[in-house]
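Troubleshooting entry. Yesterday's outputs looked truncated, so today I'm pasting the complete records for two proteins to confirm everything comes through intact. If either block looks cut off, that's the bug. Protein one:
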Amino acid sequence: MAGSGICYHPHVTEAPVPKAMKQAGPNQLAIDWSDGHSSVYDVRALRLNCPCAQCVDEMSGKKTLNEASVPADVKPVVINPVGRYAIHIEWSDGHRTGIYTYAHLRGLG
């Protein structure tokens, strides 16, 4: 479209996004993705892979979270969407700063 300022690339596909999210068991979260893939996550593993600045050093990318400080029975309390790219999870251990991008989640499962 000449002059519209919009660039259309027919060969670029959009990254998969969650279509559905549900509890899959006492300690599991299931996500069905827009491309047909399904992922099942251990919720403690998700908590241990929180990408926020409290859990990962922003400069080095090194994990700083002490895994022993995360209870074995940690669970999501609230899950909310963040725009069209991520979810925010509030955890039963009081942690509330983690934003999990869809790309990060997809990489974990």
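Protein two, checking that the full record survives here as well:
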Amino acid sequence: MYMMVKVNLEEFENISDDVDFCKKLLNEQNCLTFPSQCFFESGFFRMIICTTPETINAFGDRLQDFCSAHYKA
């Protein structure tokens, strides 16, 4: 199962689009997601949610750390 998540790019510093968001998330937090541009859309990322609750919670923690690090103050 998959989930598309909207990214409000204007709320982040130094992130230009969904591709940039996904690349930085992978490099900084070791989380693999897919930019919605792969699916002819923009401003979202796709994540896989057919895994254990522990893995989903760990992803959520890493995503929160990433967003906190890049959020415009």
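Both blocks look complete. Sanity check on protein two: The domain at 2-61 is CATH 3.90.1150.10 (Aspartate Aminotransferase, domain 1).
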